[in-house]
Amino acid sequence: MPLELKGISKSFGNLQANNQINLKVGKGEIHAILGENGAGKSTLMNIVYGLLQPDSGEILVDEKLVKILEPADAIKYGIGMVHQHFMLIPVFTVAENIALGREKSKFGIISFAEIKTKIKKLSDEFKFDIDPDAIIEDLPVGVQQRIEIIKALMYDAKVLILDEPTAVLTPQETDELLNVMKILKSRGTSIIFITHKLREVRAVADKITIIRLGKVVGTQLPSASQEELANLMVGREVDLAPSKAAFNPGGNVLEINDLSIFNDSGRKVVSNLSLNIRAGEILAIAGVQGNGQSELARAIVNLEKHKSGSIKLDGKEILGSTVRDSLRAGIAYIPESRELDGLISTFSITENLILDVHDLEPAASRGQLNRSYISENATTLVKEFDVRTQSIEANSSSLSGGNKQKVVLARELSREVKLVVAAQPTRGLDVGSIEFVYEKLLAERANKKAILLISSELDEVMELADRIAVIYKGEIVGVVDSDVSREKLGLMMAGIK
Amino acid sequence: MITKFFIGLKKNALLPFLSFIFAFFIGGIIIVVSDPVIMGQLSSPGKFLTSAASRIGNSYLAIFQGSIYDVNLARESGFFRGFYPMSETIVTAIPLLFAGLAVALAFRSGLFNIGAQGQFIFGAIGASYVGFAYELPPLIHVPLVLIAGIVLGGLFGGFVGLLKAKTGAHEVIVTIMLNYIASLFILWLLKTQAFLREERQDPIAPEVNSSAQLPKLLGGDLRLHLGIFIALGVTWFVWWLLTRSTLGFKFRAVGANSNAARTAGISVPFVTTATMFISGGLAGLGGAVHLIGTEYALTAGIAGSIGFDAITVALLGQATPLGTLLGALLFGALQTGSRTLLSNTGTPSEIVQVIQALIVLFIATPMLLKRVFRLKNSIESKSMTAKGWNG
Fold first, then answer.
1. A contacts of B257 (beta carbons < 8 Å)
2. Does residue B140 share a domain with residue B59?
3. Most CB contacts within 10 A, which of A44, A140, A216, A440?
4. B259 → closest Cβ in A324, A341, A351
5. Domain range for B36
6. Which structural domain range is residue A372 located in?
7. pLDDT, tens only, B56-71
8. How does the average pLDDT of chain B come out, rounded?
9. Could you tell me if A323 lies within 8 Å of chain B, comparing CB atoms?
10. pLDDT-based confidence at A103, cuts 50/70/90?
11. Are B382 and A343 an interchain contact pair (Cβ–Cβ within 8 Å)?
12. Domain identity same for A180 and A324
């Protein structure tokens, strides 16, 4: 047994993050740990990797009791970890990053030749195709992740922890990663795969441990059904295929004609794009990240500066007006990064809920904030959108990802809106929160709002959309109905009509 | 025990408070080390320790007496006269407070206004001219002078904001340059016909008319003037602006996360310009109050190092209005107390500047304080939001 955990407990203040957790990881086993955000998965892994110390419990490596006080100990015992947020230096080369922190030097000189050969060897073994001299920041996220994996393997990891590895990957990259995991497994490496994505778990895992509220609530085999796993994880029945009201579109709400967008360095990122969305319709833009869909969403609310063409909301031209006027014209905007663009982390939930309307009646009168209204507003919205928080005065940084997104949704949907622009609205969220986001979007659809959904999750696109527009290199490859096959969509996303 | 007491203090105030204590501790060591007589007694430790302790004690007592209440002065000329140092402390603190508020406000919008010095000078110029060139009833004249200070300081600061909003020019560089411009401009201005005093050739402007002077509050040679109420009023105003007004909400939003503020429809260029205008206006008002409260006549050195000390004061006050008020009072006391230090104790008055510098150093290094006082995560500085070069 390469790794065994016995009765691990850890609490932070009143919060019991881990409660008597037992876990056995066999040799060459892919052991998935499934749980919602905040269930205690990351705490547990940080304990294994020496970033946190447990309050009680034992860690056994190869049947021997060990103390892991810091990551260096973990590495010594053959435990490697690929973090959700990569620990790479963007301006260094691949080889430099891998050499970092474990430089075996002779008289102060690092032997890069040796490191490069080793990288090449590992890279070939997994068909990674990594150039040791490439600069990290020039590489796609998927490749950066492979470098993290190689880094862990260079330490001869027997147990590899992958923390939410697919959160940042495109569908293709995800499939490739799952293959790599299978190869690693065949080499005898054990993998702890932390995730909340059911499809992936069922595709690769040998064993699934489900954690909820810091406790192990079940151990399943991959043959378990999606519903079974989801129910265990969330602790109640979940509905991943929400019921949609009958499709009954009204007139055009959004009409985009011949829109071109240029980035700050003048490169065209969206070219001559035209599309329309009707009332009561969800149009999804599907595409691999970085094909102009982010810029498209931002352009609609005029966050992108350099653009040409026409964007009409209810027949009125909004291209070129200010962000403020675009939002007030009736657009709800759910930005791609809720941490960066959606919320102010040092502001309270209350304040975040009025970011857009803080200077309008009734939130303010004659230049002064109306504090009683603002706090009532927060109380109502927090209840309506089921934001889980200790207090409405808590900073938004104290919220989990799902609750952060609920705050953004609550703010944006509480305005009078005609169009909802939702960019990657479920990225990094747990099942319960995803379900909630779907419900809200579908409610808006039933209320005859037009919805532009931008997503790189194929399942999501096919589940929610009435029509799907596939974007590739800033152009719409085609618009198809939602009953299209995954294969066809995949091909279109690669630019093939 | 001690740690418990510290944690009981409000988290915001803990860092400045500990910095203060620690700076005085290190200051004491420096007082001893820099004195050759005391150091010469090192061979007999008993004697060395007594004279070191008495020197440090006397020096800090002298700073206290020189800044709060002077017992000797009271014995000679009555109980009330003993408050002379405190009056001086407050008079010194008033301009520091205005300029400190200017820096603090900009901090909260994510801007680092190094230019309080220049804005202060321009405020004083405006006040000086309106003060000596016109003859008006005091109730009209004083407000007019103050408005002149606000407008000139505001324009001098607002220009920086506009430049940043339109071209992205970094406010730190621009304000540093404008400080030079201001101090050279005032030199030139004092030689022009308009600002030349009759029968004088040296660079000093005429005194403002008595109708433009702020009345003294206590009479005698106590210089405490009406400006204290203006200063307290403005402190309240900045607090209201930041916490209660929609404009301040925009300021704080942009300061804390300009991306999210922009996404929610707040215009960042507007906030940058407005912040720098108001910030400059506050510093300019400080210049005006300083001029018509204590100086009366414009000189090239009118601002001293007030605009620079203001940065420290705002830092000490964690960029909050109340904190800045306390910071300004502390600095006012230190500077006033240093005046009699050398004559009374033989300790060089520059030690006060060393202590001021140490306070800044310790505030900037919270990790060091945590080590020294063995605190765990109870030190926070969350309201300071000015960013570095790329902000």
1. 340, 343-346
2. no
3. A44
4. A341
5. 2-76+341-373
6. 252-493
7. 999 999 999 899 998 8
8. 90
9. yes
10. low
11. no
12. no
B interface toward A at CB cutoff 8 Å? Answer: 244-247, 249-250, 252-253, 256-257, 259-267, 382, 385
Cα–Cα distance measured from residue B263 to residue A17, given in angstroms and rounded to the nearest whole number: 34
The residue written with tokens 């901090």 in the block is B107
A340/B contact by beta carbon, under 8 A:
yes
Residue A441 sits in a domain whose CATH number is 3.40.50.300
The answer to whether position A241 is within a domain reads no
pLDDT for res A265: 82
Quick check: A483 and A460 in contact, CB under 8 A? no
- The ipTM assigned to this model is 0.86
Give the Cβ contact number of residue A258 at 10 Å: 11
Whether A52 and A192 map to the same domain: the answer is yes
Q: How far apart are CA B232 and CA A459, in angstroms?
A: 61
Long-range contacts of A110-118, Cβ-Cβ distance < 8 Å, separation of 24 or more: A118/A154
A324·B250 Cβ contact <8 A: no
**For chain B, what is the HEC assignment?**
CHHHHHHHCCHHHHHHHHHHHHHHHHHHHHHHHCCHHHHHHHHCHHHHHHHHHHHHHHHHHHHHHHHCCCHHHHHHHCCHHHHHHHHHHHHHHHHHHHHHHHHHHHHHCCCCCCCHHHHHHHHHHHHHHHHHHCCCCHHHHHHHHHHHHHHHHHHHHHHHHHHHHHHCCCHHHHHHHHHHHHHHHHHHHCCCHHHCCCCCCCCEEEECCHHHCCCECCCCCCCCECHHHHHHHHHHHHHHHHHHEHHHHHHHHHHHCHHHHHHCCCCHHHHHHHHHHHHHHHHHHHHHHHHHHHHCEEECCCCCCHHHHHHHHHHHCCCCHHHHHHHHHHHHHHHHHHCCHHHHHCCCCCHHHHHHHHHHHHHHCHHHHHHHHCCCCCCCCCCCCCCCCCC
The C-alpha of B385 sits at a distance from chain A's nearest C-alpha, in angstroms, of 10
State mean pLDDT over A260-274.
91
Claim to verify: residue B169 and residue B246 sit in the same structural domain: yes
Q: CB–CB of A344 and B382 under 8 A?
A: no
Lowest mean pLDDT among A162-171, B186-195, B280-289, B348-357: A162-171
| Confidence grade of residue A240 (pLDDT, cut at 50, 70, 90) | low
- pLDDT tens profile A355-401: 999 999 999 999 999 999 999 999 999 999 999 888 999 999 888 88
Is the Cβ–Cβ distance between A3 and A160 less than 8 Å?
Answer: no
- Put simply, whether the predicted model's pTM sits higher than 0.95 gets the answer no
Is B225 within the bounds of a domain?
yes
How many domains does chain B fold into? Answer: 2
B385 contacts in chain A (CB < 8 Å): 346
Mean pLDDT of A71-95: 87
Quick one: pLDDT at residue B390? 42
Cβ of B246 within 8 Å of Cβ of A367? The answer is yes
> Do B155 and B300 fall into the same domain?
yes
Contact (CB, 8 A) for A191 and A184: yes
The answer to whether B249 contacts A367, with C-beta atoms less than 8 Å apart, is no
Asked if B253's CB is within 8 angstroms of A327's CB, the reply is no
Tell if the CB–CB gap between B247 and A324 is shorter than 8 Å: no
Nearest to B159 by CA among B145, B147, B171, B148: B171
As separate numbers, helices (DSSP H) first and strands (DSSP E) second, chain A gives 16, 24
* B260:A355 CB<8 A: yes
Amino acid of residue A115 = I
Is A441 in contact with A282 (CB distance < 8 Å)?
yes
A88 band by pLDDT with thresholds 50, 70 and 90: confident
User: Looking at the predicted structure, is the pLDDT value of residue A38 above 80?
Assistant: no
Chain A residues with CB-CB distance to B262 below 8 A:
303, 323
* Residue to substitute from A298, A323, A417, interface B, most B β-carbons within 10 A: A323
